[in-house]
Design goal:
This protein has about 70 residues and is of the alpha+beta class. It has one domain. Helix content is about 45%, strand content about 15%. The chain contains four helices and two strands. A two-stranded parallel ribbon has the order 1-2. The longest helix is centred in the middle third of the chain and has 11 residues. The protein is globular and about 30 Å long. The model has no long low-confidence stretch (mean pLDDT about 80).
């Protein structure tokens, strides 16, 4: 997700981070985020992502790994 966020940011997009409490407590956040939504759990995170996004991109982990070579 970080590599996709970086390409989007480099091309002028606003990056929204939807971060569950547990990840934030572990310091697993990105410096690229412009707007942060904090959620209690993953279910809440999915709801916020769907409500706040203009576009959603879903890909398998293997594809995300290979995509970074083409961006």
């Amino acid at each position: 997700m970080e590599c996709i966020a970086k390409v989007a940011k480099d091309n002028g997009s606003m990056i929204i981070g939807v971060i569950p409490t547990k990840l934030e407590e572990r310091g697993r956040t990105s410096d690229l985020v412009d707007v942060t939504f904090r959620t209690d759990n993953l279910s809440d995170r999915k709801d916020v992502m769907l409500n706040e996004s203009d576009v959603a991109v879903a890909c398998r982990e293997e594809w995300a790994h290979w995509m970074r070579f083409f961006m």
